[in-house]
Write a structure and sequence with these properties.
- With 339 residues, the chain is α/β, with parallel strands linked by helices.
- It folds into two domains: 3-128 and 278-337, Medium-chain alcohol dehydrogenases, catalytic domain (Quinone Oxidoreductase, Chain A, domain 1, Alpha-Beta Complex), CATH 3.90.180; 134-269, NAD(P)-binding Rossmann-like Domain (Rossmann fold), CATH 3.40.50.720.
- Helix 3 (129-142) packs across helix 4.
- The chain starts with a strand and ends with a strand.
- The chain contains ten helices and 16 strands.
- Strand 15 (306-310), helix 10 and strand 16 (333-337) form a beta-alpha-beta unit.
- Strands 3, 5, 6, 7, 8, 15 and 16 form a seven-stranded mixed beta sheet that branches. Strands 11-10-9-12-13-14 form a six-stranded parallel beta sheet, with helices on both faces. The protein has a three-stranded antiparallel beta sheet with strand order 2-1-4, covered by helices on one side.
- Belongs to the zinc-containing alcohol dehydrogenase family. Quinone oxidoreductase subfamily.
Length: 339
C-alpha cells in the first residue's frame, strides 16, 4: 500500500499543544465513480478547520485530516468522470463530510471542482474556493441579489476584512451594489477599501448613527460574516422593510426573530458545504460557480485574497495558521504551499 504525507490529529486539543496537529502518513487513495485524485500543491486555512479541531472529549483511531481549500493537479480520474482529465490544474473546497485535503493527494467529486485560474499561482488560487463559493451563494443564491443592475441598492457586510468578506466586496461591486463594510482597526479598514468598499463603519458601535452619517436610514441587504448573535440587534434595526439578511456564522444563542416581523424581513443561512453534504440535485452549481470565478480572475475583474503564504505544508505551519485564525484578527487568507 502506497503511503502519503498528511497533517492530521488524533485528539482534539488547544492549538498551543504540539499534538493538536501532527505530521502523519496515511494510505494514498484511489478514485472511484466521479472522484478525481488531486495532487495537492497548496491549501488555505479557514475558520471551519479550527471549529472541527476545537477541543472535545474524543479520540480518533485513524488520523483525522482537515483542510477544505485546495489548488492542485489532477493525478487520476474515476471511471465515471467527464469534466477533467489527468494533468488538469484545478481548485476547489471539497466536502466537510469527507477527509480533508491536508495531504499529498486528495479525493474530491468532480462536480464541486473548478478549473484553476490561469493567471494565478497555486497559492493564490488556493485562497479562493471556499470563500468564493460562500460569498457567491450568499449574495446570489440565498439573498437572491441580481448579478447586475443594482444601482441605488446597498449591501452591509459585517466582518468584511476576512476571507469571505474580501471576495464578497468584489462580487458585490461587480453587481453594482453600494457596499458598506464593517471593521474596527486601521489595517482592516484599509484592506476593505482596497477591495472596493464604498464606506466602512465600526462593528463595535451602534450601526444606526454611523449609517446616518453617510446618509443612509436603512440597508437593503446584510451579509453577516461574524458573531450573528452579537450583531443581531444592530442588524434588525438597520435592515429596511422587506429587506434580507444572510449569515454564515452559526450561533449557540437563540435568535429572537420577532424584531424582523413588522418589517417582513427575510433571514437565511448560508453554508457552502450544504450542496456536497446532502448531494443536492444542483451540486454541479459549485463547479459552474468556480469556473465563473476563474474567468473573472483571469479577466482581472476579481483579485485573489491571499495575504500570507507559509511553506511547506506541515504540522508546524498548520498550527501557526490555526493560531493566527483563532486570534480573530486575520485579514485576507493564510495559505500553505508544498509538501
Amino acid at each position: 500500500m502506497t503511503k502519503m504525507k498528511a497533517v492530521g490529529l488524533y485528539r482534539y486539543l488547544p492549538i498551543s499543544d504540539p499534538e493538536s496537529l501532527l505530521d502523519v502518513e496515511i494510505p494514498k487513495p484511489t478514485p472511484q465513480g466521479h472522484d478525481l485524485l488531486v495532487r495537492v500543491l497548496s491549501i488555505s486555512v479557514n475558520p471551519v478547520d479550527t471549529k472541527v479541531r476545537r477541543p472535545k472529549d474524543r479520540v480518533e483511531t485513524e488520523p483525522k485530516i482537515l483542510g477544505w481549500d485546495v489548488a492542485g493537479i489532477v493525478e487520476e480520474t474515476g471511471p465515471d468522470t467527464t469534466l477533467f482529465k489527468k494533468g488538469d490544474p484545478v481548485f476547489y473546497a471539497g466536502s466537510v463530510t469527507r477527509p480533508g485535503a491536508n495531504s499529498e493527494y486528495h479525493l474530491v467529486d468532480e462536480k464541486i471542482v473548478g478549473r484553476k485560474p490561469k493567471t494565478l499561482s497555486y497559492p493564490e488560487a488556493a485562497a479562493l474556493p471556499l470563500t468564493s463559493l460562500t460569498a457567491w451563494e450568499a449574495l446570489f443564491d440565498r439573498l437572491g441579489i441580481p448579478e447586475t443592475g443594482n444601482e441605488n441598492t446597498n449591501l452591509l457586510i459585517i466582518g468584511a476584512a476576512g476571507g469571505v468578506g474580501s471576495i464578497a466586496i468584489q462580487l458585490a461591486k461587480r453587481a453594482n451594489l453600494t457596499v458598506i463594510g464593517t471593521a474596527s482597526r486601521p489595517e482592516s479598514t484599509n484592506w476593505i477599501k482596497e477591495r472596493g468598499a464604498d464606506y466602512v463603519i465600526n462593528h463595535y458601535e451602534e450601526f444606526v448613527p454611523q449609517l446616518k452619517q453617510i446618509g443612509l436610514e436603512h440597508v437593503d441587504y446584510i451579509l453577516c460574516l461574524n458573531r450573528t448573535d452579537m450583531h443581531w440587534d444592530n442588524m434588525a434595526k438597520v435592515i429596511k422593510p422587506q429587506g434580507k439578511i444572510c449569515s454564515i456564522y452559526e450561533t449557540d444563542e437563540k435568535l429572537n426573530l420577532y424584531p424582523l416581523f413588522n418589517k417582513s424581513v427575510t433571514f437565511v443561512w448560508e453554508l457552502m458545504f450544504t450542496r456536497a453534504m446532502f448531494g443536492t440535485p444542483d451540486m454541479m452549481k459549485q463547479h459552474e460557480i468556480l469556473n465563473k470565478i476563474s474567468d473573472l480572475i483571469d479577466s482581472n475583474v476579481l483579485k485573489t485574497t491571499v495575504n500570507e503564504v507559509l511553506s511547506p505544508i506541515n504540522a508546524e505551519n498548520a498550527r501557526k495558521a490555526h493560531a493566527m485564525l483563532e486570534e480573530g484578527k486575520t485579514i485576507g487568507k493564510i495559505v500553505l504551499e508544498g509538501f
